[in-house]
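A.,

Following up on our hallway conversation. Structure tokens first:
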């Protein structure tokens, strides 16, 4: 992302593509960009164009690294998605900054809606993909629900290849409990965990079965009522982040620490000055980049625009984190060097303007 206007950026990207291919189509699929070296710029809260010059549609997303590339899966909220359909998009990047649109890897139409999913309508949110090295399958978890958010289930979809097609193979309430927002955590030893919000009880960190198709057992249940759950393991400590339950509206996200996932966990405290409401964003994931010189933990948050979902923005910032303390710095332009792992915040750059407040939802979730 550069500091130019969206129109400038899209124009420049299209011109570059035109020169290279004599074609500048909004739907053309291009090959992965050549890896760029050195620091790459991220501007939190701005439009984030993909290789086609289109704003990335990967909301409530998750990231995995596979065979040297990062893959970002998220909610496809593009305006061209037919009404009643829900889809998961997939983008790839060598450096976490320059993203190539791969495809919509899972699309669920009204006709594909599982007949035994309670209620009517379809919600498919917060996709997270794990790679199972034993079965050589990619396993996607999604929050699957009816339009009233009463079913409160997870859907599981699998694929032979990272960028699809994923097929929905089952859906259920994990451990028999309600599940709305989900998160994923893969520990340094490769163990995968599903994080899920359970309205009556709190939020869970749970293990998966050998084939990753089932949720096996609780490692920890936080009694605090929080969602947007995310975890990172750094220097022998686990840090857990989550938001309060205010629907699309931003709230002050919190963190706690523990030396083991089972706990005991510390009290939850603010990740940023509470009056900023996490600078208008909500947590979705923590991404650890261990480079040759430094380790950076990126806070990956969504700035939701519920009435213009396709225009929802991303707040990615390197955290100030260590020794049990965690702070989300005031968002402004920064650079990430994927090789060295170094993140540099441009302290001279203007701070991101705080997004206007989003009205609080009256209903679940
Ligand atoms: C939020 C949740 C989002 C979406 C939204 C709908 O609480 O984090 O993923 O479900 O509610 O109101």
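Then the amino acids I'd put at each of the 365 positions:
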């Amino acid at each position: 992302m550069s500091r130019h206007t969206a129109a400038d950026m899209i124009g420049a990207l299209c011109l570059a593509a035109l020169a290279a291919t004599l074609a500048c189509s909004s739907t053309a699929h291009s090959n992965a960009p050549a890896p760029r070296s050195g620091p790459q710029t991220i501007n939190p809260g701005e439009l984030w164009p993909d290789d086609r010059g289109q704003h990335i549609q990967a909301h409530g997303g998750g990231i995995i690294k596979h065979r040297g590339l990062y893959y970002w899966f998220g909610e496809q909220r593009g305006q061209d998605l037919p009404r009643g359909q829900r889809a998961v998009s997939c983008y790839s990047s060598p450096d976490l900054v320059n993203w190539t649109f791969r495809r919509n890897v899972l699309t669920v139409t009204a006709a594909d809606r599982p007949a035994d999913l309670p209620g009517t309508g379809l919600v498919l949110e917060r996709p997270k993909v794990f790679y199972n090295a034993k079965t050589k399958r990619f396993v996607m978890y999604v929050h699957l629900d009816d339009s009233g958010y009463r079913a409160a289930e997870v859907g599981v979809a699998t694929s032979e290849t990272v960028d699809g097609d994923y097929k929905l193979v089952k859906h259920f309430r994990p451990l028999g409990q309600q599940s709305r927002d989900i998160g994923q955590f893969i520990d340094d030893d490769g163990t995968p965990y599903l994080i899920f919000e359970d309205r009556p009880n709190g939020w869970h960190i749970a293990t998966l079965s050998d084939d990753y198709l089932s949720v096996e057992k609780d490692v920890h249940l936080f009694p605090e009522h929080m969602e947007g759950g995310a975890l990172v393991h750094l220097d022998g400590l686990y840090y857990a982040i989550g938001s309060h339950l205010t629907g699309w509206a931003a709230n002050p996200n919190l963190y706690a620490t523990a030396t083991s996932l089972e706990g005991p966990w510390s009290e939850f405290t603010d990740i940023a000055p509470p009056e900023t409401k996490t600078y208008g964003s909500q947590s979705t994931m923590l991404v650890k980049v261990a480079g040759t010189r430094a380790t950076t933990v990126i806070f990956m948050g969504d700035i939701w625009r519920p009435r213009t979902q396709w225009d929802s923005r991303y707040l990615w910032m390197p955290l100030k984190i260590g020794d049990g303390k965690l702070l989300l710095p005031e968002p402004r332009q920064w650079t990430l060097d994927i090789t060295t792992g170094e993140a540099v915040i441009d302290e001279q750059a203007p701070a991101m303007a705080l997004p206007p407040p989003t009205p609080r939802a009256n209903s679940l979730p």
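The longest strand covers residues 123-132. Curious whether your intuition agrees with the design.

B.
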